[in-house]
Design a protein that fits this description.
- The chain is of the alpha/beta class.
- It has a single domain, classed as Ribonuclease Z/Hydroxyacylglutathione hydrolase-like (Metallo-beta-lactamase, Chain A, 4-Layer Sandwich).
- 25% of the residues lie in helices and 29% in strands.
- Strands 7, 8, 9, 10, 11, 12, 13 and 14 form an eight-stranded mixed sheet that branches. It has a seven-stranded mixed sheet with strand order 6-5-4-3-2-1-15.
- It is globular and about 50 Å long.
- It starts with a strand and ends with a strand.
- The structure holds zinc ion (ZN).
Length: 252
Amino acid sequence: MAKIVFLGTGGGRIVVLNQFRATGGIILEISGKLLHLDPGPGALVRAKQYGISLRRLSGVLISHCHPDHYTDGEVVIEAMTLDKKKKGFLIASKAVLEGHENYRPVISPYHLEKLGFYQALKPGESVKVEGLEILGTPTRHEEPTGIGFLIKGEKTFGYTSDTEFFPELPDFFRDADCLVINCLRPRGQTWPEHMDSGGAKELIGKVKPKLAILTHFGMKMLRGVAERETRWIQEETGVKTLAAKDGMQVEF
Ligand SMILES: [Zn+2]
């Protein structure tokens, strides 16, 4: 049984900067390994709030170089490596590790030194680490090197990260048992390079995961709108679809 804990479900500047929803990322437990995806602002505090010991982490994944996805990366790496140096791994977009055009590297050499292993992944590349296979999936987003993840262990877990829908995207998530989609806005309220629930419905309808979960909500998805949109997606696709809440735990 694999498990997810949402340490945050906020997206978009207004929600993130006002902390209308938390922004600590996602904890994934799979094949006995604990991973932290996109440790944004408050990841350390939310982990404590929701009873997750970051010392148990095996790895950290950072999808792209926007602050709501990386700001707590270094403290989470410190927590992961508190008991033992040269432990754990970091998989990230190229800009997170090396910088790119308007982005600088966001994990210091001091923190990379603490890790057992780190690697930048390009879309379509995969790496085997700690008994898991991790594939970088493509994105269309402001950060040009940004990736999502398909993580294969006892179950297969997909995470789109921030991207708009595009026709090639479903192919990368075909095998997902559980697919988590960063969905900023409701259907019909398209914002370039971000997902709205119309795009999420297309993706879910094509991938047909056993379970789909929307998260990373902007203002227009709060006050019950995300729940309305997931009910609509579920009716249209026949796929069980949830709207994430801060602290929500889901087994799959
Ligand atoms: Zn972003």
